[in-house]
Design brief:
- The protein is of the alpha/beta class.
- The protein has helices spanning 18-26, 31-40, 56-62, 75-86, 89-92, 142-149, 165-168, 173-178, 190-201, 205-218, 224-232, 254-259; strands spanning 2-5, 8-11, 46-50, 67-71, 95-98, 101-103, 107-113, 132-141, 156-159, 183-186, 243-246, 251-252, 269-272.
- It is 36% helix and 21% strand.
Length: 281
C-alpha cells in the first residue's frame, strides 16, 4: 500500500490495521505532530520514537533524521513495524527497531490491550476493560536502555506509550541528563491513568463499570484528588527544560501544569530548550 505523509511517500503493509492506514492516508492526520517533527528534527538528529506502533512517525522522522530508534513492546505492532521499515529501502538503514517496553524500572509485567494487540491500545497500566492481558514482558528504564544500546546522542524523543508516561516521567531525570535534555514530545493518556486507578481501587468489575459510566454521564470522578496529586508531581525531573509548549505552539509554564494538572486531558506537550516560533513555519 502506498501512503503519503505531507510531502513524503512510503510503502507499507497495513496488516490488521488497513482501515487505520487508509484513514491516515486520506485525512489530515495529526497535523500538529508533523509540524513538531519538521521544526525540531534535522539531518543531524538522532530520534527515539518510544511507542512507535506500526511506524507512521518512525518512517516520517527517518526521511530527515540521521538515525531513528523505534521502540514498541506490542508483538503485533513490532512485527508490522519491522515489515514497514523493510519496505522503505531508502530509509531502512537509518532505522533501528527494538521490541522494548520503557518504564520507570526493570520489572516483569503483562502488556494489556482493549480488544487485541496491534491496535494502538496496548498498555502496562492495567484496566478492567482490557480483553488481552497474556503477553508477559520485562520493562527497562530509559537510562538502562541507552546504556544497553550504547546510545550517546539523542536530539528528539517522541513518547506515545498509552499511559506508561505516568510511570516514566517522574524518574526520567538521570536519562535526560545523560543525553543533554533533548526535545521531548509527550502524548498523554489521562483516561488510561483514570481507569488504572479504578482497576487498583475498585476490584469488582460491575462497580468499575458503574463508576466509569457515572463519570462519563455526570463528570463525576471518584479519584480526582488522587490523580491531581500524582499529576502535579509528574514534571519534577523535567525542570531543566526552558520551554514547554502545547501542540499548537502556545507556551506554558511548570507553574500552570502544577495548578492545572487536568490540562493534559486536552493537549500533548513539548519540553525543549529550543525556542519554538510557529509563525516561522
Amino acid at each position: 500500500m502506498h501512503i503519503q505523509l505531507k510531502n513524503h511517500s512510503f510503502q507499507i503493509d497495513p496488516g490488521q490495521n488497513k482501515h487505520f492506514w487508509k484513514h491516515i492516508n486520506s485525512t489530515d492526520w495529526e497535523p500538529h505532530s508533523f509540524v513538531i517533527f519538521d521544526y525540531f528534527i534535522n539531518e543531524k538528529s538522532v530520534v527515539l520514537d518510544v511507542g512507535s506502533w506500526s511506524g507512521v512517525l518512525t518512517l516520517y522522522a527517518a526521511k530527515t533524521a540521521k538515525e531513528v530508534h523505534a521502540l514498541d513492546p506490542d508483538p503485533v505492532c513490532f512485527s508490522e513495524l519491522e515489515t514497514n521499515v523493510a519496505l522503505n529501502l531508502d530509509i531502512s538503514g537509518k532505522i533501528k527497531t527494538h521490541q522494548t517496553a520503557i518504564s520507570d524500572k526493570k520489572e516483569t509485567l503483562y502488556l494489556s490491550a482493549r480488544e487485541a494487540y496491534g491496535q494502538s491500545s496496548s498498555s502496562i497500566l492495567n484496566r478492567k476493560r482490557d480483553k488481552e492481558h497474556s503477553f508477559e514482558l520485562e520493562t527497562i528504564s530509559l537510562f538502562d536502555f541507552l546504556e544497553k544500546e550504547h546510545i550517546q546522542q539523542v536530539n528528539f524523543i517522541k513518547m506515545d506509550v498509552e499511559g506508561a508516561e505516568f510511570k516514566i516521567l517522574p524518574t526520567f531525570g538521570k536519562a535526560l541528563k545523560k543525553i543533554n535534555y533533548p526535545t521531548l514530545y509527550v502524548s498523554f493518556h489521562y483516561s488510561f491513568l483514570n481507569e488504572n486507578f479504578y482497576y487498583r481501587h475498585v476490584p469488582f468489575g460491575f462497580l468499575n463499570k458503574v463508576f466509569i459510566r457515572l463519570e462519563h454521564t455526570f463528570g463525576f470522578t471518584l479519584f480526582k484528588n488522587r490523580m491531581r496529586k500524582e499529576i502535579a508531581n509528574l514534571y519534577n525531573d523535567l525542570k531543566a527544560y526552558m520551554y514547554i509548549y502545547k501542540t499548537n505552539g502556545t507556551e506554558i509554564s511548570f507553574k500552570e501544569l502544577k495548578h492545572k494538572p487536568e490540562l493534559i486531558k486536552n493537549t500533548d506537550l513539548v519540553f525543549t530548550n529550543t525556542k519554538w516560533n510557529p509563525k516561522k513555519e
